[in-house]
Amino acid sequence: MSRSNTVVVKIGSTLVANSDRLTPRFGFMQRLLDDIARLRDRGTNVILCSSGAVALGLKTVGETPESAGISDKQAAAACGMPLLTNAYKQIGHEYGIEIAQVLLTLGDFEDHRRFLNTRNTVFRLMEAGVMPIVNENDSITTEEIRVGDNDRLAAKVAQMVDARDFIILTEVDGLYDRHPDEEGAKFIEEVTDVAPFMEATKGKSTLGTGGMTTKLMAANIAQEAGVTTYIAHGEVDHPLTSILDGERRCTRFVAHEDAASGWESWIANRLQMAGSLRVSNEVAEELIDGDRAVMRADIKGIDGEFTRGDVLHIYDEDGIERARGLSDFTSEELRVLAVNPHLDAEQLLGYKTKGEIVRSKNLVSLVKRHLRWDLPEGTSDPTI
Ligand SMILES: Nc1ncnc2c1ncn2[C@@H]1O[C@H](COP(=O)(O)OP(=O)(O)O)[C@@H](O)[C@H]1O
Ligand SMILES: N[C@@H](CCC(=O)OP(=O)(O)O)C(=O)O
């Protein structure tokens, strides 16, 4: 799979906002954009995912990092976002970098059309030489449509554009085997599997949101998408090129070799699914190599209400999730087809169809990806 020559860079709140005065840290932003200009001169596209809107807007709504509740932070984000964008815009000008603001929610990654629109917009901006600056649209999000932290939001962006590298700049120089303030904390230079470190990541800075925990989750999303990830301190000259040129200490998360393409990742990494299909164990085995479609005759069970283009779980007879795929039919159409197996599809639906319920190019086998969601306990078997 070809990777775009793109680096996604995530900037934590502590780097862009002064924690006492809650004002922009222009010095840091200058060093950052200076280095981004260097990268762009090398022909590398950069997408910035910058936190800081909430921190920069807190004063305007009369709050502090300690006092602010959810709605205060949502209002603060609305006040701080123009300040953040304006600071990047002005400094970008000094370095000949045009910037654009892209505000996203979880729904923009989950919905197929919105995902493609977002992706197209980001690519179109880069084609025009404009650097996208991404942030979560905090002011309009609710629990259901929040990613919740910019570490994972940035990882999803890296996955969406098939980025080459993903750099998380923060206030520590990388991952330690326990909180870095604890005595004897050992620095970790390279990580293949994040799982053993999840327990060792409690605590965060005053302005930060997810601490090291969400950074590891983000690194894992990127690894699975074949993107090499680095966590490093942001407070240095040439914060990006020094990492990519191997000149300074950071933690490197190795990209998985059998990475999924952006499209496969989009199908496989759903956080919300509309429904499911059940097929025989024999058919489930045949789906493994990814060349086979799920046909009308394969369907043993249907669960949920879904429309064309929704992603479905595909379970075997034992309730084990074996694949995920995009349905070419609505649940209503599928039920009509399933209860009338001897009647022609055209007769039943009023249009011609090849009977491919999930096309092979829209299907991802889960065998190698540790993503399986077996039928949750207490869930009835999906039935037609
Ligand atoms: N095992 C660990 N290794 C490194 N840092 C850790 C670890 N556990 C907790 N942290 C803390 O994570 C914090 C960085 O996360 P966060 O405050 O969310 O920063 P940002 O605003 O850059 O996202 C640091 O303050 C660091 O002390
Ligand atoms: N979207 C929020 C930032 C959320 C967040 O993840 O913050 P951080 O842990 O500092 O990267 C903002 O712009 O303030």
From TrEMBL:
InterPro entries per UniProt: AceGlu_kinase-like_sf, Asp/Glu/Uridylate_kinase, G5K_ProB, Glu/AcGlu_kinase, Glu_5kinase, Glu_5kinase/COase_Synthase, Glutamate_5-kinase_CS, PUA
Keywords: Amino-acid biosynthesis, ATP-binding, Cytoplasm, Kinase, Nucleotide-binding, Proline biosynthesis, Transferase
Keyword check for Coiled coil: no
Recorded superkingdom: Bacteria
Xref: Pfam families: AA_kinase, PUA
Binding-site list for ATP: 10, 209-215
Pathway the protein takes part in: Amino-acid biosynthesis; L-proline biosynthesis; L-glutamate 5-semialdehyde from L-glutamate: step 1/2
Protein name per Swiss-Prot or TrEMBL: Glutamate 5-kinase
Similarity section: Belongs to the glutamate 5-kinase family.
Reaction(s) the record says it catalyses: L-glutamate + ATP = L-glutamyl 5-phosphate + ADP
Domain annotation Aspartate/glutamate/uridylate kinase: ranges: 5-232
Enzyme class: transferase
NCBIfam families: proB
Taxonomic source organism: Blastomonas marina
Domain PUA: 277-335
Role, per record: Catalyzes the transfer of a phosphate group to glutamate to form L-glutamate 5-phosphate.
Gene name of this polypeptide: proB
Subcellular location: Cytoplasm
EC number: 2.7.2.11
Residues annotated as binding substrate: 51, 138, 150
